[in-house]
Amino acid sequence: MTAQQPYNNVVRTAIQALAAVLGGTQSLHTNSLDEAWALRRSSPPPLPCAPSRSSPTKPAVTNTVDPLGGSYFVETLTNEIDVALGITSRKSTPWAAWSRPSSAATRKREIAEASYRYQVAVDKKEKIIVGVNDFVAEESL
Q1: Nearest to 52, CA basis, from 91, 106, 100, 16
Q2: How far apart, in whole angstroms, are the C-alpha atoms of residue 80 and residue 5?
Q3: For the segment 102-132, what is each residue's pLDDT rounded down to a tens digit?
């Protein structure tokens, strides 16, 4: 969610909700249009509620057990994410190792470094975020 051009958040939320449904979620919460500002309203705006209410019913993707099962495209993207995160050895690493204090400190450092690299990529426009660093409208809400 971004504070710049918040109506883009509606599209982002709809895509996230659909992805959750395609992934087989049993519970779904969608963020509101103004989530990036952390503002509370007396009543939620009706527009941001629409994705979570309509995603499971409109496209009828829940009519099959696993609509993306066996999708080469999805499997390829998942593998690319694993490689980018450096967790290709996840299957052979015992989960108990992740809970050790030294591992926790290492993970915290890795997360901080990844966050820094992400922000640098956004600042250099290597990572495009619509409405933030590209396709920025002259008017904002």
Answers
A1: 16
A2: 29
A3: 677 888 888 899 999 999 999 999 999 888 8
- C-alpha–C-alpha distance, residues 60 and 49, integer Å: 18
Q: pLDDT for 20-74, tens place per residue? A: 888 778 888 887 777 777 765 555 555 555 555 555 555 566 677 777 777 888 8
Q: Facing residues of 102 across strands?
A: none
- The DSSP result for 77-139, as a single string, is HHHHHHHHHT-TTGGGS-GGGGGSHHHHHHHHHHHHHHHHHHHHHHHTTSS--BTTTBS--SS
Q: How far apart are CA 57 and CA 31, in angstroms?
A: 19
